[in-house]
Amino acid sequence: MRLLQRLQTGAAPLPVRPVALAKLTGDRATFAKGQPVGWSPDLARVLDLPRRDLAASYGDADFATLEASLRAPPGTSCTCRTLGKRCPSSLLPIQRLALMEAARTGGGLFPIGVGHGKTLVDLLLPLVMPGCKVAVLLLPSNLRAQLVDVDWHFYGGHWRLPNLAGGRWFRPGLPVLHVITYEKFSTQEGTDLLTRMRPDLIVCDEAHKLKDRKSARTGRFLRYLEQHPDTRLVAQSGTLATRTVKDYAHLAAFALRDGSPLPLNRHVVEEWAAALDPGHAVAPPGELLRLVDPSHSLDPLEGGNEAERERRRVRDAYRRWRNATPGVVATDESAVGMPLVIRTRDPGKVPAELLAHIQTALAGQRPDGEEFVDELQRVACARQLASGFFHRWRYPAIQGVPQDAELITRWFSRRQEFNRELRERLKRPAEHLDSPGLLVRAAIRAHQSPPYDGELPTWRAASWPAWGDIHKRVVHVTEAVWLSDFIVKDAAKWALRKGQPGIVWVEFPELGERIAKAAGVPFYGGGPEASATIIRESGKRSIVASLRAHGTGKNLTMFSRMLFVNPPADGAAWEQAIGRCHRQGQLADEVEVELYQHTAELTGAFEKARDFARFIEETEGTPQKLNLASYNAASWP
Ligand SMILES: [Zn+2]
């Protein structure tokens, strides 16, 4: 049985090598929640992996040879002067190690912190990977402009780069690099993209974009690797695991194969996750304690009860074990030593009406009376209300004629029914059946007449005929209903503080637009144009930006202050967003972060984020900015 199936099923997998068979067939298919981690063949395999001291693996002569082979020919002109940068004379230590290790291992798992120069590693990997002719670099769409328009020219002035697919120049003998966005990968067009290119190397930057095995994108990606087992994979990210080690066990499996320091069997991954992940109901580490090296004792002064200390010990041991595995290159020190200050911003008195609406929303009802169907909607609404507005659906009149209320009710209930069936079906993804859009097309094929006789799969969704009948007959739009401008006004005031420009981060575009308008500064939402122009800001005026669109990848060191209007609950999102300014190249003495904490949802979200940040640091070893920051508020420990 092939690797993917081995990852997906716990039952009696067949081996890649005979030795793996004996080890893997003994894995239990299930484990009881709260039970200590048990002995498994997967654990035995991990304990058998060779150990390696990365610092002692390569010498100066190796690095000199590497850099000589990668340096651009003398006389190559560079763009440093126009960018106000100094010409780099060598690779950063972590870049050298990542390139050497990928070349030697034929793959790589690089938990490398934000601001350590992963982009240049992306670009040079095709040149160092033995025999590489066609490489694919996957990255988020909002980073494409920075890479192709800025970084490519900057690095090309000093290093030999591969041939950029679709670029103006082609130099024979050098590999071709296709730059593809993760977003493209989520579309039907993306399904066959890799199959056509047949890369011998795939580099995933911001590889946490592939953390969700249940998503169409990740499923498609894993299926491709499964069908093309010779493809070499390098996965790098500053935040490989954000909530759980499950986030990257599958990537490690394809990058390092039998050499992965994580379980290959999905059920064993679950078992380990129960002991290593953050949260209250955790399992004792049990057999995982075999990873502990007795010579590494934790500081005895560290607090907590016995169970907490044991959990820290096993997280620490797991991280050391992982990082000493061939093919793994991790950063162990912070990219920037510059101080980071985090403080709450008091927006003034919260209107009583908003507080009352938040209570009602959490109890399950929107201010306009609409009932929520799930927890997610309740929390989203409470977060919006904390900023003074809420989202609702509106059914506008069409050419002056109001839409039929009875039809709208029927439309809504059939929609819910179809969505329920769709959610269930998405749990069993397959080629051409792994996204809502593709499933709708498959459902249309299944019910069409004359019957479909093509090669694509069909889906006999029971709720489709009723929904398909009606789904185009009602028109709806999402609109923001504003109850108060108190946050808009306060955020605008922050943005206009004299001589102190900064970034106002928002989750909701309509909120961002409103703040930007009140302050008379630009708002950067989604889309390629915003991505291309935000990086040209001078830092002399404040900006408002969508956290989702611009909170990762970009270099925004022209700013050193930021305000989080809708603080995320995700530790990785914080690490990434703060890293836009708190990174190499920042010229200010310190980076200042402010956030609103005026409702229980906002404080809860930030508490969760700090909890995740501790987990990431303990298992990943990458210091998290939320942990190293100094907190300027009495309410924070
Ligand atoms: Zn230069």
Give your account of this protein's structure.
- The chain is α/β, with parallel strands linked by helices.
- The protein has 3 domains: 3-323, P-loop containing nucleotide triphosphate hydrolases (Rossmann fold, 3-Layer(aba) Sandwich); 340-351 and 484-631, Rossmann fold (3-Layer(aba) Sandwich); 405-475, no CATH class.
- Helices cover 42% and strands 11% of the residues.
- It has a 7-stranded parallel β-sheet. A 6-stranded parallel β-sheet has the order 1-6-5-2-4-3.
- The model is unreliable at 1-31 (pLDDT under 50).
- Bound molecules: zinc ion (ZN).
- Zinc ion (ZN) binds next to loops.
- Zinc ion binds at residues 78, 80, 87, 157-158.
List keywords for this structure.
637 residues; Rossmann fold; globular; alpha/beta; 15 strands; binds zinc ion; six-stranded parallel sheet; seven-stranded parallel sheet
What's the CATH class label of the largest domain? Alpha Beta
| CATH fold description of the largest domain | Rossmann fold
Tally of contiguous helical segments? 28
Largest sheet: 7 strands, parallel
Content of β-strand: 5-15%
Helicity, as a percent range:
40-55%
Distance between the termini: 51 Å
| Cofactors, ions and other ligands in the entry | zinc ion
- Structurally, the number of domains stands at 3
Quickly give the structural class.
alpha/beta
CATH homologous superfamily descriptor of the largest domain = P-loop containing nucleotide triphosphate hydrolases
Rough shape?
A: globular
- Enumerate the spans where pLDDT stays under 50 for 5 or more consecutive residues: 1-31
Rg for CA atoms: 26 Å
